[in-house]
Every structure is written in structure tokens, then in C-alpha cells.
Amino acid sequence: xxxxxxxxxxxxxxxxxxxxISVNNANxxxxxxxxxxxxxxxxxxPSMITDTATRESLNAFITKVLQGFSTPGSDVAKxxxxxxxxxxxxxxxxxxxxxxxxxxxxxxxxxxxxxxEPRLVVSWMRGDIAWAQIRIDGHTIENEEPTVxxxxxxxxxxxxxxxxxxxxxxxxxxxxxxxL
Length: 180
Fold this sequence. Notes:
Blueprint: E1 6-7, E2 11-12, H1 26-32, H2 35-38, E3 44-45, H3 52-69, E4 86-88, E5 95-97, H4 99-109, E6 115-126, E7 129-142, E8 145-160, E9 163-172
Parallel strand pairs: 4-9
Antiparallel strand pairs: 1-3, 2-6, 4-5, 6-7, 7-8, 8-9
């Protein structure tokens, strides 16, 4: 009998900072904010993306979108054109629904002077719908000092031909001592 369960795997994305993350090294994981991922070792799912070309295509799309978020005046909003697209950001009242509102929100994000650097992606797919947990370092300035803010996004995507469209973005800023 064939086992159709795919063992958990996290895929690191290349970054400008070139700081590799090993999800098998607890000390490195604690420092990089991916400790929760380390505890999923042995996780199995029949929906993990195991096809290298599909996974690389989705990772490239995610990277391209985050680079667009980091670039004022970019055309990144075009990837959020589905009429049912929705975003729930990490800030109070960062809720956008429908293509026009979402595209306006995405365009606003490009003006915030944040460099969005993807660090780790775990992705699944059924049919033409994929979803991913995306660990991101947000490079910004706080109190006149360079700061890295850890961010986690849940992305839902639809495969359209050879490309992707973003259907949902749910963002959060993990905290050491969560309130809920």
C-alpha cells in the first residue's frame, strides 16, 4: 500500500541578507523566530507541495510580491486582482475586501519603507488552490534605528495557467508573550 502522506518540510527562500535558517537547529530556530516550525518535525500531510517545479514557482511568486511590497511605485497590486481577494493585516483596521480596496491597501503598503524579506515558506495545494505559511523579516526603522520585525503571513493562491494570483493575505506579528 502506497503512503500518500507527505512528510513535513520547510523550504527556505534565498534572501538579500543570506542568513540561512536550519529548522533542525533549536538554537538557530529560537534566534530566527521559527521555533514553532521546529516542533512540527514529523508532521505529515497529503497536500504538501512536493512537485519541485510547482513549489519553486509559488516561492518565486511570493518573493516577487514581497519585493513589490518593498518598492514604492511598483505594480505589485496587479497580483491582487481577483474580485474575491481579501486581506487582514496585522494592524488595527487593516482589513480590505474586493480587488479595488485590496489593491489600494497593497499600494499603500509599498509606501511604508519596509523591506519584506521572505525567510521560510511551508506550502500545500489541492487542485488549483495553494496556501502557505510565510515567515517574513520586515526591515524598517524604529526610533531612528534599523529594526527587523518578525511577521507571519498566511497566503491563499490560485494557479492560473503558468502563473499565480493572490486570493487572501492574513498577517500577524508574533509576540513572545501573546495576549490571546
